[in-house]
Here is the input.
Amino acid sequence: MQTDNGGDRNPAKTVSQSALFELDEVRVTPYIAQFGDTSYQIAAISSVRAIRGKKLSRVAIFVFLSGVGLFILAIVRSSGSAIQADANFPVAVTAVGIMLLSFLIQLVLPGRMFKLILRTHGSDVEVQTFKPKKNHSGCKASCRRSFYRPCATG
Here is the structure.
């Protein structure tokens, strides 16, 4: 029984040999940059840049939700008499203070991320978002390297 593997045309072998960069769902070759299911021709890309962005901090979200929970607890415990409401007022003020603290935590310790942006024919396209631990600079460098490949003369 003979299987047809296409002779010398083994696409997996040629694609893996010519890849300049490969990480998760990102693959950059000298002619194509592929991000997930979307591919861009290198010739159509006029520039590549990576910008730093901020996202919500998990610590800030946890502190804010703790403040909301404490505030709701103070409201539930104060329903009834005025004496209970006066007794739970400091708890409610503390809860509001905790919620304000979460905004300060977000300002001081925001979550970091990097966005890779390609400029194609006058429009900017955000193609990938990287966490700081991922190698966004390698992807950016390989996209730029594919622009500057030497011309074949002969």
Summary: The longest helix spans residues 82-108.
